[in-house]
């Protein structure tokens, strides 16, 4: 049984706490959040103790730490937990600043392979199936890869201002996914636009398209929006020499409707990441637990986190300066 602490009792901390509490090889042992109401509420749900300082987690007897604190605290929390001998699963991105993420990787040394970064979408059963079937050669040689990722609504402008921008905050998942399929990225052309003046005023885009060239010359495309009226649009297409594999959105049931106005109409797509990726978070945790039990390395790890952040930085420069950026 692996004893877990969750640092950060916010939206994603609650998701991880639930996954840990329901995993047969895990025990939720401690919650940490300096905002006592948040800590108390989440700890109370599972009948576990809470602390207000991350240092108390590092000094405790937990085996593993899940970090769901705000991004600017990730590096401090990763380094503190690893120095205390804990295994770590940290949310994306590693940091808002590439130099800070690289410092984290360098200070960790060999341990950087053993710290998981929460690119949960790699563990989504639908996307993992596409990846496995591409790897098995079902569509011949993979030639193009496309991700469509749209959020149902933009976060508050206050969040946007401190988020590092759409490419570091949101597209980072898609950069990791493109790397997962095509390998390392060497060139990025990104374009952003705004339909929401408050996001523009916060210095960010709410619509984005990114074209990425991989080291072997293949090209990937990412389409993002923060304003998708029909919900959390999460799709991908792998196109190859012998066909294509397409992953569509999920709905809560497979029922379709036909009427005078519509045919093939389904119910709404799953609301947001808490619903759409519930299996992904569970399977991410299982992969992490397997690695802890085997005392081995994990993927995606801090190296993947740093590489995705490099792409995000390049996309930010590309979109702001209107030019392709080579990595
Ligand atoms: N993988 C995903 O699908 C996914 C989804 C959402 C968020 N995230 C990431 O998770 C992180 C948190 O995002 P969120 O949406 O849960 O934010 P949130 O604001 O809902 O939660 C953050 C929590 O951290 C707490 N906190 C603040 N300072 C702290 C400290 N010093 N020590 C410990 N806890 C502290 C806050 O009180 C809050 O409860 C971000 O890095 C974000 O990018 C990942």
Notes on the protein architecture:
This protein folds into two domains: 2-91, Rossmann fold (3-Layer(aba) Sandwich); 122-293 and 305-326, Dihydrodipicolinate Reductase, domain 2 (2-Layer Sandwich), CATH 3.30.360. The protein is 38% helix and 24% strand. The chain has 13 helices and 15 strands. It has helices spanning 11-21, 36-46, 54-58, 74-83, 98-108, 125-135, 157-161, 166-169, 171-182, 197-201, 273-276, 278-293, 302-321; strands spanning 2-7, 26-32, 50-51, 64-67, 87-90, 116-117, 142-150, 185-193, 207-214, 219-225, 233-240, 243-247, 256-257, 265-266, 325-326. β13 and β14 (265-266) form a beta hairpin. α1 packs across α12 (278-293). The radius of gyration is 20 Å and the shape is globular. The model has no long low-confidence stretch (mean pLDDT 97). The site of nicotinamide-adenine-dinucleotide has 23 residues, from α1.
